[in-house]
Amino acid sequence: MSVRCQVTGRKPGYGNQVSHSNKRTRRRWLPNVQRRRYWLPSEGRYVRLRVSTKGMKTIERRGVEAVVAELRARGERV
Predict the structure, then answer these.
(1) Residues 47-77: pLDDT tens digits?
(2) Which parts of 1-78 fold into alpha helices (H)?
(3) Helix 53-62, helix 64-74: angle, nearest 10
């Protein structure tokens, strides 16, 4: 499964790790993605989402109902 936030769409960032001797090797920065369960009162059930910590803040601010409705409009399986 890919390391991608369902709410914000954050993906790994790519770049170089630069050592003290200026030697460069490829590396990637992974987003802090967690698997969380949210209660949907309108449906009377839980939904599982893979969200980053920024996505969790978005859900707290806008509400889980609005976020799930937007995900379904985009065609994501929730």
Answers:
(1) 999 999 999 999 999 999 999 999 999 999 8
(2) 53-62, 64-74
(3) 110
**What is the number of residues in the chain?**
78
Cβ neighbours, 10 Å, residue 36: 15
Residue with tokens 């009162």: 41
- Does pTM top 0.70 for this prediction? yes
Q: How far apart are CA 36 and CA 41, in angstroms?
A: 16
Helix/strand/coil percentages in the chain, nearest 5 = 25, 35, 35
Residue 59, both tokens: 């859900």
Cα separation, 55 vs 50, in Å, equals: 9
